Task: inverse folding
């Protein structure tokens, strides 16, 4: 049987000393495609920060495309297509803008490619790749085989889809509003097969690990005997259910990232986010009682934000002892309701996807000027990531958590501070 060479590429942030590779993050989507590729294909997964980097020998190239890295993905695709290698693009950005992507690709896969990938590969072998492939949402219950491509970070996803419909988010549009689950048994078996010195450290890449509380409780109970330690993205509402929070901790939860998004109820309402600001302090206290490291993310520049949003956000983070505050500018990703609204009102000022990185103002804000928004954002960072504040924040946790987790917290704070200073 003929052997083919397939290279799957993950374009990402510029290489610098804050490179996320130290945590071993790679696209889980690409790992899944690699697993679903027939055995007579030799598959390599590489991350690239520039189209100039070398890649292994390839008969076919697949690239995952996030909006922020779309320009880079297109440059890489153009380069290899010129040399005659067919290129397939997939992922969130190209699923929203397939016609834009097709200017740089032989084929585009729209949606979750798990089930359709085999057809794409068969068509490639016949030399009959179609321009567009429309994928249907796979049933995750069938996903029982462990993934064979492991990296430093043991990434695993238990659910896909989200019942909420926040205006700025792509997930409910791409993955659907009905949450699909993998079976708890399959997850336990996969975790048991993790290898390496970090095999007991698990990263759940779900959008909300407690999106379905009943399922989450079942999962957490099954994780307890594995004695792992895990990180996940979660709704702050995890702390509304004390049993759920307790089970999360007992099953190994040591770092939680919550999307608070705004400390203004009016702004949350404007983006259809169901959080209740008046519950924030109490819920945070409950999480911190377990000494779980709390990462909280915020979006600045929402239409209902007033000019005091910057000071109020800083005050909130300091008062509530958030361990790693992540303050971002709104990046209205194409396809989202927020983008459609801004586009309709002719308020999108740049369609250069490089600038959709949550650090640039790419639209005309409502209650302030672009300059005020950018300056307010920078001021927030200066205040939250001053050396004094980082020392205060991390110092507070020093004897409360194991030294190795404290060191991780310090590195994360330092890395974030460094990234912002650079930007
Ligand atoms: C975990 C996570 C992270 C982690 C790890 C990322 C990683 N590489 O795995 C971290 C924290 C590092 C991260 C960072 C960022 N993330 Co993130 N992340 C996620 C999250 C929650 C899960 C990712 C995941 O594992 N998905 C599961 C896999 C199976 O899905 P998938 O990768 O999309 O792949 C499937 C399809 O897309 C398709 N597919 C994908 N690639 C390809 C390629 C080909 C050739 C084909 C055919 C098909 C195909 O098939 C796959 C199988 O079904 C997603 C939301 C989500 N639900 O996906 C956001 C998400 C992907 N992230 C997002 C963003 C914006 C970012 C950042 C840019 C944020 C920032 N401002 O810095 C950074 C960039 C990171 C980088 N590349 O350097 C956005 C992307 C939006 C967009 N339109 O581009 C998402 C969708 C979140 C959101 N709410 O909007 N992220
Ligand atoms: S932001 Fe979170 S809760 Fe809202 S739709 Fe996206 S994944 Fe769901």
Result:
């Amino acid at each position: 049987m003929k052997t083919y060479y397939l290279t799957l590429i993950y374009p990402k942030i510029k290489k610098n000393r804050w490179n996320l590779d130290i945590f071993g993050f790679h696209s889980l989507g690409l790992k899944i495609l690699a697993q679903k590729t027939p055995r007579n294909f030799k598959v390599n997964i590489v991350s690239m920060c520039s189209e100039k980097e070398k890649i292994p020998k390839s008969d076919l190239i697949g690239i995952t495309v996030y909006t922020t890295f779309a320009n880079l993905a297109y440059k890489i695709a153009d380069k290899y297509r010129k040399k005659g290698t067919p290129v397939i693009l997939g992922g969130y950005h190209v699923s929203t803008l397939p016609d834009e992507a097709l200017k740089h690709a032989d084929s585009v896969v729209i949606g979750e490619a798990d089930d359709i990938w085999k057809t794409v590969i068969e068509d490639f072998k016949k030399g009959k790749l179609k321009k567009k492939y429309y994928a249907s949402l796979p049933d995750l219950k069938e996903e029982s085989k462990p993934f064979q491509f492991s990296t430093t970070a043991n990434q695993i996803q238990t659910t896909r889809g989200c019942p909420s419909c926040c205006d700025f988010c792509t997930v409910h549009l791409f993955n659907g509003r009905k949450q699909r689950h993998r079976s708890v048994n399959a997850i336990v078996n996969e975790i048991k097969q993790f290898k390496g010195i970090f095999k007991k450290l698990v990263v759940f890449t779900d959008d909300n690990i407690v999106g379905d509380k009943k399922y989450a409780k079942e999962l957490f109970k099954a994780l307890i005997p594995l004695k792992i330690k895990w990180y996940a993205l979660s709704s702050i509402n995890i702390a509304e259910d004390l049993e759920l929070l307790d089970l999360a901790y007992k099953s190994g939860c040591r770092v939680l990232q919550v999307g608070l998004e705004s400390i203004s109820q009016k702004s949350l309402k404007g983006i259809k986010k169901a959080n209740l600001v008046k519950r924030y302090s109490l819920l945070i206290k409950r999480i911190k009682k377990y000494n779980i490291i709390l990462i909280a993310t915020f979006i600045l520049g929402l239409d209902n934000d007033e000019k005091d949003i910057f000071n109020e956000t800083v005050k909130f983070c300091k008062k509530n002892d958030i361990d790693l505050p992540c303050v971002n500018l709104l990046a209205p990703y194409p396809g989202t309701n927020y983008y459609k609204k801004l586009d309709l009102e002719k308020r999108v000022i740049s369609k250069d996807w490089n600038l959709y990185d949550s650090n640039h103002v790419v639209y005309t804000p409502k209650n302030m000027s672009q300059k005020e928004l950018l300056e307010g954002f920078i001021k927030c960072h200066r205040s939250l990531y001053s050396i004094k504040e980082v020392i205060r924040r991390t110092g507070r946790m020093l004897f409360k958590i194991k030294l190795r987790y404290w060191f991780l917290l310090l590195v994360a704070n330092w890395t974030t501070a460094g990234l912002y200073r650079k930007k």
Notes: The CA atoms of residues 102 and 108 lie 7 Å apart. Residues 12-13, 20, 25-30, 32-33, 62-64, 66-68, 88-93, 109, 112-114, 157, 169-171, 175, 205, 207, 233, 333, 357-358 surround cobalamin (ligand 1) (CB under 6 Å). The mean pLDDT is 92. The longest helix spans residues 403-422.
